[in-house]
Structure prediction request, 237 residues.
Amino acid sequence: MRFTWAGGTDAGRVKSNNEDAYHPEQDGCGSRPLLLAVADGMGGLPAGEVASRIAVDCATARGVPLDERVEAANRAVMESGRRNPGRSGMGTTLTLAKLHPDGSLSLRHVGDSRAYLLRDGGIEQLTVDHTLAQEMFEMGQLTEEQARRSPYKFYLNRGLGFAEDVKVDACEVRLRAGDRLMLCSDGLNEMLPDEEIQPILENGAPAEAVQNLIEAANQAGGYDNITVVAADVEEDG
Prediction:
């Protein structure tokens, strides 16, 4: 398989700083293994943007299995918080994807950033949000619609920097030619429901789709930082 990818980020219309980070920052194409990552930091100025940058840099720089990359990123965020009093309590989400030329996708996820798969005219969310609202929905305490509107959706119950041991969701997917994978921070999906994301995501090259999604989220309010990374899967040669 061959991959074509693009990414972008924007602070949005409300926040003055951008606490998101992503990888790769350069658009491109190729038939080698591809790492994609999105992180959404928290902890206040400037800790959130530091946490997300540490997580992405650490998770994408190490030539080790994905689980070890996430564990190393968690340790790095926690250690930075210990060494710097102004960063105490900082944390971040991390959604990390590795696309292999044989068509396999390995995904690791902590927090409420998301991964989506666009295939055959449909869109599927591959990750589960690690929020209190999602937990209450799974326990039957909220309906899906109530969970989507609940203020508890902003309360993360899992993230990097929260504890020494982090529980990481793992997902393996078999990719097909024509698939488009997207990773995003919640600044996108909080502004746009899936049914609005899909028609924008499926049109144009990855770079065009990324910019159009960011613009649409800003037009819908832009209440949070918005980060999108998209990759197309094509037959090699």
Notes: The chain has a mean pLDDT of 94.
